[in-house]
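Human: Here is a favour to ask of a fellow structure person. Comparing notes only helps if you start from a blank page. I am asking you to supply a protein in sequence and structure-token form. Write it directly below this note and I will take it from there.

Assistant:
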Amino acid sequence: MTDTAGKSSPPRVLQNRYELRNQLGKREEQRTLLALDRQTKTPVVLKFLLFPPELPADRLEKLEKTSTTLKALFHPAIPTYLDSFVIDLPPVKAFVVVQEYVEAQSLKEYLKTGQILTESEARNMARNILDILAYLHGLPTPVIHSNIKSSNVLLAKPREGTTVGRGDRLFLTDFGALQAAVTPDDSTSRITNNFIHMPPEQFAGRPLLASDLYALGMTLIDSLTTVSMMELPRRKQRILFEEAMNVSPGFADWLKRITEPDTAFRFPSVQVALDALEKLMAQ
């Protein structure tokens, strides 16, 4: 059995444990499926990262090391990484990552309904994602998410009286380091998929902790305007968003600094960005 891309479909049950149900997402080098974990009787998400059989050993080793790092993460807003393994899907192979299933829609799906965030909602979202990043960047070996964008921010069903972006209903998923480990450095698909939210230093292959701040800022801008990010003007790599949204001057300045292309002028750390945001919210 093959899919439309000519690749074999996985067996219905993997590892004698994961019973595949339905496809959640599909990209050129990825497949995401919902499955039932027969051992725990709970739904899980399986992400298939496709790679050629001749993938260099050092890349596969990097992928396994990255997966081990992610499985050690423990944060209530990061769906737990549970398992990983390699399977054959002729003519390719797949590194399969098993993750906790969260019943939620992505921020991207929310925005597709024609909704945009209010400034208050965007501030709440920024604060809660910064809290997640504070955990990741504060680990003994800091973890860079490298893939913050609207499709990777999950919004669980809101409790009565809550608004978008509150910590009890927001999750951050899909770390970019996994795909980077199996994707060639010059991959046009990797660049295309992440170009809008990718800071210049990451585009050049040198991601920093502050790269996650830039991506967060771009995700917020994307959520505050109905104008396509591709249509917003730029000047010397800086995105000019002010005319396309209705936010206070203080928050606009905060967004400008967090999306500063030059890292010398961007917020240098999560804590500095968070302190500036908290000061703004207290006004």
User: Anything to note?
Assistant: DSSP finds nine helices and eleven strands in the chain. The first helix runs from residue 57 to 71. The radius of gyration is 19 Å. The longest strand covers residues 18-27.
